[in-house]
Amino acid sequence: MMSSHLQTSRFPARALHVSINRSSSTTVEAVHPILSVFPARGQLDEKFKIVVENLPPRFPVTLHSFYPCEDKYNWEAFGHYLSNDDGAVNGPGPFPGIMDIWGARGGLEESRASLLASHGFASVVVQYMTTNKVDGTLEYFERAFCLLQEHPLVIKDRVGVVGSSLGGTVALNMAAKTMNISPQCCVCINGLHYPRFKTSVSEFNEQHIQALHKIKINEKNQAIWRDTTLPIMDNKLDVERITCPLLLIYGEDDQAVASKESAEDIAKMMHEAGNEHLLTTLSYSETGHLIELPHTPPRITIRAPCLDGTTEQRITLFGGKAKSAADAQEDSWKKILTFLRQQLYPSPDILPKNNL
Amino acid sequence: MTRFNKKNVQTPLVIHISVYRGHVVKGFRENPPMASVVVERWYMAPGVKRIEVKERGITGTLFIPPGPGPFPGLLDIWGLVEKLVEYRASLLASHGFVTMALRYYSPIEIKPEDVDTAIEIIQEHPLVMEDRVGVIGISFGGSVAIRIASSAKGVNMGRIKCPLLYIIGEDDQLMPSAAIAEDIAKMMREAGNDHLLTSLSYPNAGHLIEPSYIPHTRESHFTFSNQPKMISVWGGHPKPHADAQEDSWEKILAFLKQHLYPSPHTVLQAKM
After folding, report:
1. Inter-axis angle of helices A138-149 and A166-175, to 10 degrees?
2. Residue B41: its chain A contacts at CB < 8 A?
3. Which residue, among A151, A165, A97, has the nearest Cα to A125 in the 3D structure?
4. What is the ipTM of this complex?
5. Could you tell me if A136 lies within 8 Å of chain B, comparing CB atoms?
6. pLDDT of A182 above 90
7. Across chain B, how many H-helices and E-strands are there?
8. B52 touches chain A (CB under 8 A)
9. What is the least distance, in Å, from the CA of B15 to any CA of chain A?
């Protein structure tokens, strides 16, 4: 903990419990503290906690709170603090960036990107499917990625990619340099390392159409897609070409795609290629294809198109059991955030040390 | 120089918290911070409903907690301000009490019957346990509350029949609250009902002891009726006053819960 000299103007700063941590020494200019408040939304008469991390040791800072009132009066309070010897987001930016890619469900799902932004990452989610048709050329994804990099509030060389399901396959394609872009890190949730796309993500359709006969129907009359993605295609990614950290997440009971087999193959290939130090694998038992946001109801089955070219829909088993899947969602989200922070937030450690 | 008051309790306070390099005392708006976050603080918990009341000559605002109830009730009476202050009532509802903030126009106009009517309105509400209704008042509202508790026109503290939590700031510059508190205790001792009294007295706290984290104001502009604008000194020093608010608010909530929420075995008997 640190010593503090607290001055208040209007706000009683008693409401704040502050702990400030730091990392090792750094040049004076490049300090990127991470500021968090828990809870960010609460009741007026509840305490909240402010944490400032990622500062150099014994670094003086001023903590300031400001409230513009309904009438013309403003309220503010501030306090002077010193970071401690152990040392520990951003304000006006710039921020690391995330490209968020979802699966073949269509539409534009903003929930994950908005949460990532709430954790300090400038995030863009791209739509690449219209109705039931998978579209999205590789060039389209390249353009979206570059657009994000070039945004004035984004740190150009700290842009990562997060993808789930078919979006995970796109993310892996990016990491394996199928496109002319280089993500700083990659998170893949229940995606496969095949097919290796040539020009468009719609090439995924071709794999499915040829394998429609492999769709199983179980005793509950639910469709199971899993076997349509087996065996592992010859046209798979050169995972040897991955040079960025990769967080691979899969549900062991994924009934939609062969994510387990894919993950095992990726690990084997990277081991043989000598780049497996970049790989972290998280697998969750009794968890299916949909590992979504924490505290959202886990989805074991969904209503999905029959994939036979008609507009029919039927109940499709995605796998997993409710409690295990719910736990997996909570745990994986925490680990995703930690991974993204480690890979994308500049740390004083990696900046050139000054000559003290 | 103004007191802190949020008129619209249905929207949150939006507070900007920033970290600046070095130890600075000014220039917060001119110089960019190193990092900044936005925080919201709400006066109404999710699900709390706000209803404007205008019936039987009473004007006020009712706040109802979420859930099937029934709930204890509270009448919340503010001090001498010519407007309805709702934020304490909304916070009390957020803690599980059906609470009505009562509007009154001047101490001359408020009649004991009006206050009785307000309490009846609360008691008659379908979500309220009619035999579990309390009163909370600050400043002049506190006097009104005591009057209700003693059910008399003059305040004879000997006639207090219910538990009373009496809170003062010892640096109150508006009224001699320490002396008043002593007098109350003396009267109740002599009447033999001082077992009902709990007193909280805060050194260096001023007149305006409000819920936790409301900013302290030592003095502010004050207008009343057609009087010329004046500055009223409330007293209190920032840290002790802030501590007093935190401590007293916690104790107020505990006191209200203890006396107004039925304990488990009581509820069982009542329902059978």
Report:
1. 70
2. 41-44, 46
3. A97
4. 0.77
5. no
6. yes
7. 6, 11
8. no
9. 5
Q: Is the peptide bond before A33 cis (omega within 30 degrees of 0)?
A: no
Of A34, A43, A64, the CB nearest to B45: A43
Q: Which of A184, A169, A104, A181 is nearest to A141 (CA)?
A: A181
Q: Of A24-28, B214-218, B245-249, where does mean pLDDT reach its minimum?
A: A24-28
Which has the minimum average pLDDT: A279-288, B34-43, B220-229, B232-241? B220-229
Closest CA in chain B for residue A73: B2
> CB-based contact (8 Å) between B35 and chain A?
yes
Q: Do A14 and B45 touch (CB under 8 A)?
A: no
Tokens 């126009």 found at: B105
Question: In terms of pTM, does the model score above 0.80?
Answer: no
Q: Could you tell me which of A224, A299, A239, A226 has the C-alpha nearest to residue A271?
A: A239
Instruction: Please indicate whether, in this complex, the C-beta atoms of A41 and B12 are within 8 angstroms of each other.
Output: yes
DSSP state of A137: B
Q: Which residue is closest to B210 within chain A, CA to CA?
A: A45
Q: What does the block give as tokens for A338?
A: 């930690």
Residue A146's H or E segment, with its range, is helix A138-149
B7, B8, B28: residue with CB nearest A64: B28
Average pLDDT estimate for A239-264: 97
Out of B6, B12, B249, the one facing A45 most closely (by C-beta) is B249
Query: Cβ A67–B40 below 8 Å, yes or no?
Result: no
Q: In this structure, what are the phi and psi dihedrals at residue B194, rounded to the nearest 5 degrees?
A: -75, -5
Asked if A14 contacts B62 with a C-beta cutoff of 8 angstroms, the reply is no
Q: What is the pLDDT of residue A54?
A: 81
- Has residue A45 got a pLDDT over 60? yes
CB atoms inside a 10 Å sphere around CB A240: 13
Bridging pattern class, strands A154-164 and A95-101: parallel
For residue A348, pLDDT beyond 70: no
Token pair listed for B127: 């979500």
Beta strands B98-103; B71-77: pairing state: parallel
Task: Please tell me if residue A1 touches chain B, with a CB cutoff of 8 Å.
Answer: no
Short-list A337, A13, A55, CA closest to B15 = A13
Query: Residue B123 phi/psi, 5° resolution?
Result: -60, -35
User: Could you give phi then psi for residue B145, rounded to 5 degrees?
Assistant: -60, -45
Which chain B residue's Cα is nearest to A28?
A: B21
Looking at A142-253, which runs of residues are DSSP E strands?
154-164, 186-189, 216-217, 223-224, 246-251
Residue with tokens 């040539």: A198
